[in-house]
């Protein structure tokens, strides 16, 4: 019976849409489409043609409709549209006298003066600048639909009902109710009061992190779907846009209809569209914008005037995204899965998901704002999360949704739940989501076991080929702990390495875990690992291949990690490490030689990313947007006579990372790192500057893969320090767009290091230098020449410049693979 009821509503909606008549407005002389032409309807609000001149006209049950079409510089014409018309082509003729008046006689484009006024008045028109604070609620519907929805009727009535639902329902639907808070001191916070995701057993919070809901046209940068565009009312808008007044609309609050389009689209990404500006205060009344390129994006915004505060408030925003010319991924769950994928770019993840892409799919996100409470300063709950999901958000009663829905919940929406539930099961969508999440952290889930991909294969000059297996148990075994480890074998040194560990989840919401483990493996001499370094997964580790100076160790460790706030995480660790087989190296201390020794340490590490934005759910915190700076710090204290430890020392590390991103897609990165140690320190626990060059004579024999923070001309084992500072500077120019598939990136690089080491005589049977004269190299990368492959060059200069060009020069691959 439910299927029959749904079927009737779908058929009714389909028949109602039959009176939609498509049309297009063009220049009668040139055939050029007229974007945003005004189409006046009798006793109704005028509509505008789209960027390509197209429009849809609804006869609303009438046999015919008389319309008037006008455009700046063209004669206004009247047309009669009948239900007999399947489509219409409306031609306007240029009025050259008006065109001359606008484009020749005017000493200055009047639209520019209008835009200057609108920019100047942002402080009184933008609610976030004009008001001390406010709250409002919003209802949002996000769906993936299909432009082609054929109704296929079969002979059997039951089959026809099912076929109708399958063919007409959407591929995805979610709804949310949000309470927004804003005050000048704390900014904007969102509380998600209700959330529904059709077809999924567990909440799909990732849809809240998609950045599908953009910022305001008043902002300098209009951000939507991980892409930033120049704002049409930004401070420097006249530099990035050209404007034209199309019309003046006589409504309750008259407005100027202003057309805008990018001036420097190849340099600074921009939108094209129209904006309605109030003739009194120059505030935004309505916007319509579009961009056609890597994605096809349409934005429609409607505002409502609040007379008490004399400010226009956003009431409704509708965003539609379709496939474009290529290169931009639009997918629902952070990966390119078949359900919800609008477009896919070639990437590693596409190997695991090669379902055909439906080019008729589009994303549609509609938001309706209501219940504005103005000129108050709401006290926002003290939380560092930008979005907070209430514990009951996923379990709201039907009455809650019927009371808060501000858009019709149609029969087609009802059919979606049935269809999505079926498609999620048949296409194993939840499994694909699980795989995407795990692979982002370097794992592949197999039933109760998450396989660690980085342990499968490696190669270096010491071990030769290194094969193995590793991973950890997942929640299919227990949601209170995991057991993990790895076993690998090096065919060069003919030795097995292994680890066994466990993490006991004390508090999942704060990522508080007790960690215990034992490791028998090798480690590079002079390496320093931050416990709270951001997680990284490498298919290929550039430096690892050519390293040849390792030490063997056995280590017991216990630690506690805890996320203090989403932006600040910490870990404390205690360990006992037995070091042996350090090639021919021997450490001399107090007249005693130590070919083997034990290091017992206690360490604490912090990672702080103060400007990251997070989504707080009842279960955990999810990163929405990573911002800079990122600060990582660690202190290790070595103890003699504790747990058989041989030496007292103190090691510290501090790393600062900062990235400047620009609208033209250029980027400048800075990485500053300092390491300092005091006490009795064997060479294994000193510092190196991440050298990445082997000691081969010919340049091509040193050919390898370049790293991001390594010195490409510095030889392995050339320098060791107990005091070290490094600075990496990278400036990426905006991509050179030869085509949608060939957009190489040029990167200019400058690297510097300075350091020193005390008691050099303690380190026996090894020859190395300090960095007291300062080390410098300059580099150039051309990335993404073919897919993720590129070329890199670097040249050593300064205090450690070597005789001969080839000894100072490096030529390498670069590898940037997208997951």
Task: Describe the structure in your own words.
The chain is mainly beta and 819 residues long. It has 12 helices and 45 strands. The chain folds into 3 domains: 2-107, Carboxypeptidase-like, regulatory domain (Immunoglobulin-like), CATH 2.60.40; 114-434, no CATH class; 511-815, Porin (Beta Barrel). α1 packs across α6 (157-168) and α1 (2-16) crosses α10 (411-426).
Write the layout of secondary structure elements.
Layout: H1 2-16, E1 20-27, E2 38-40, E3 47-48, E4 54-58, E5 64-70, E6 77-82, E7 88-92, H2 96-105, H3 110-120, H4 122-125, H5 127-130, E8 133-146, H6 157-168, E9 172-183, E10 187-197, E11 221-224, E12 227-230, H7 237-240, E13 241-249, E14 255-262, E15 272-278, E16 284-292, E17 295-306, E18 311-323, H8 349-352, E19 361-374, E20 387-389, H9 398-404, H10 411-426, H11 429-440, E21 443-446, E22 449-452, E23 457-460, E24 464-473, E25 481-490, E26 495-507, E27 512-524, E28 550-565, E29 568-580, E30 586-589, E31 592-594, E32 597-608, E33 613-616, E34 621-625, E35 630-639, E36 649-661, E37 667-679, E38 691-693, E39 711-715, E40 723-732, E41 745-756, E42 763-764, E43 775-786, E44 789-798, H12 805-808, E45 809-815
Parallel strand pairs: 1-7, 10-20, 20-33, 38-39
Antiparallel strand pairs: 1-4, 2-3, 2-5, 5-6, 8-9, 8-19, 9-10, 11-12, 13-14, 14-15, 15-16, 16-17, 17-18, 18-19, 21-22, 22-24, 23-24, 24-25, 25-26, 26-27, 27-28, 28-29, 29-32, 30-31, 30-42, 32-35, 33-34, 35-36, 36-37, 37-40, 40-41, 41-43, 43-44, 44-45
InterPro entries: CarboxyPept-like_regulatory, DUF5686
Pfam families: CarbopepD_reg_2, DUF5686
GO molecular function, one term: carboxypeptidase activity
